[in-house]
DNA sequence: CTAGGGTTAG
């Protein structure tokens, strides 16, 4: 803060002489519209020594927290300079945390605040909103209890945020209950409930509240469009959208997301081309939507268009386009996006770090994945998961297992995906005993209920090592239906170790689960050939002809380099 | 010495 430069301003009437408090008038503080202007007055106030006046510093806090500026880092640092912050300052900072998607920290801040103050009608809506963002229904209910205890239940801001919180957390009946107890139901309150009904697919109720309310605004209409889109009722969402008296960007974006979610990427594109203006969320919806639909090339092309003619990409954009590049496995493009990030100073923290690690692993460069992993200073569980899965994918079992141990030494608890990564690593490296050991550790020590993928991995490990009986036993004792991959593992193990009996069994079950699996017939015939059972070989070939099963044409793709 | 802070949609 001390290094801020005091630049002469044309727009602001800064006094030239050393001043007392009177010469830094309230109106000057209030007149700041942009962060730049706040910084100028801030610098000036530091130079004249007025900044540390308790009244002034709390004003600066509010200025940095204003929606037009919304600079959490500055707000936080100003807050720390305030000697004894009053409740208003706490409230301002709390709101700023929530608005900057730091709801977790906001809730912690709230617990801290409660030590010194009784929260008031300004504190509660912010923390309730934070709980809603986090989907933290337990904490939300605690705060609700506090609302009743303190006696803030009649405040309409508190009421709306509570209804909205229950709506977003999927507790629509609780939302309704709170709603019903309220005497005068205003527009915002109704909108919150409409949103709740729409997003859980309660079409009738949503429309009923909508029809019965005295007046409707853009929020009411858009809550319907968005909610119906979210629960997959895209035709209904379209119908509402077409009937809207006016629309804004949020309404268009909601509909685009709805089409993307239900596979309608062509219509989504039409809407995208048709809409009057687009913001970064529109672009992100399209890029992520293409990626979600497996249209990786479209996602990448749209990202290129965005760079040429759109607004500045953000973290969400990068996560989506990196996922698309991973799907395409084009290392060159991935590196290029990474270099864009480095050039613009974007740190690979959080989800973005995970995306980069995944991208490099899937594009075949574990070395780069490791470099990214090591460069992340505050490693989260997701980063460990990604690198362990990546190393496992590349058969670097020892490295994966080493990192797995290191991760546990750091005090992080591995979860289902981490174990899947380790198991896959064991399978690639043929580490039977370790694989079994990790599987048991997962179940017994970590209390994780294995998913079908975990069983698939364990069975694959056993089959590769020739423990076919043990693998077959597991297929019979596991609590869910074995899938195609599991029978393929068992069949391929049987072929490799010449166990015709188990092989036939696996093939039979495989055909029941997935009759079109070509590999099944190929492997079966290989197995018979290896065992010298030529009559069975021709029987399999005959069956393939009868069922019109043909080998896929082989295909591969190469990356083309453009001079740029 | 004051006044300042909060709710619903992508």
Relative strand content? under 5%
Multimeric status of the protein: single chain
Structural class: mainly alpha
Global geometry: globular
Extended strand count: 0
Radius of gyration: 30 Å
Q: How much helix is in the residues? A: 55-70%
What's the mean pLDDT score?
90
Largest sheet: none
Low-confidence stretches: 1-22
Can you describe this structure?
PPR repeats lie at residues 186-220, 248-282, 380-414. Keywords: Repeat. The protein is mainly α and 564 residues long. Among the domains are: 185-277, Serine Threonine Protein Phosphatase 5, Tetratricopeptide repeat (Alpha Horseshoe), CATH 1.25.40.10; 281-378, no CATH class. The protein has 32 helices and no strands. It has helices spanning 26-30, 35-47, 54-65, 72-81, 87-99, 103-116, 123-134, 137-150, 156-168, 172-180, 187-199, 203-212, 218-230, 234-243, 249-261, 265-274, 280-292, 296-309, 315-328, 331-343, 350-362, 366-375, 381-393, 397-409, 416-429, 432-445, 452-464, 468-477, 484-496, 500-513, 518-530, 534-546. Helix 5 packs parallel to helix 7 and helix 25 (416-429) packs parallel to helix 27 (452-464). The longest helix is centred in the first third of the chain and has 14 residues, at 103-116. The chain is globular. The two termini are 41 Å apart. Residues 1-22 have low confidence and may be disordered.
